[in-house]
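Below is a typical protein record.
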Amino acid sequence: MLPHLEVVHGVIGVSNTPELRIELRKGGVLTVTATAEQVERASRLREVSAMVAMGPRPRLIWIRQEGVDVPVPPAEERDAHALRKWSELLRRLAQ
């Protein structure tokens, strides 16, 4: 199986190690590696949505309380950010 990103939903189970256990709503338990900061954040949550890089050792990308929307900046602000971040690369590729 090739590594891929997947959003999972479930109930969080925190451990003292740099990993989290997520009891999946669809059944089963997924253990993912996580940073200390992610473990700390997860310890304050119960029902979660999480993006996981699935592979031989699943890795947590982000986690948040289920049902909480992440604020999305307006399109103009996203475009300006992308141009600031990538303008030098785009300039070089255009040559």
Notes: The chain is about 30% helix and 40% strand.
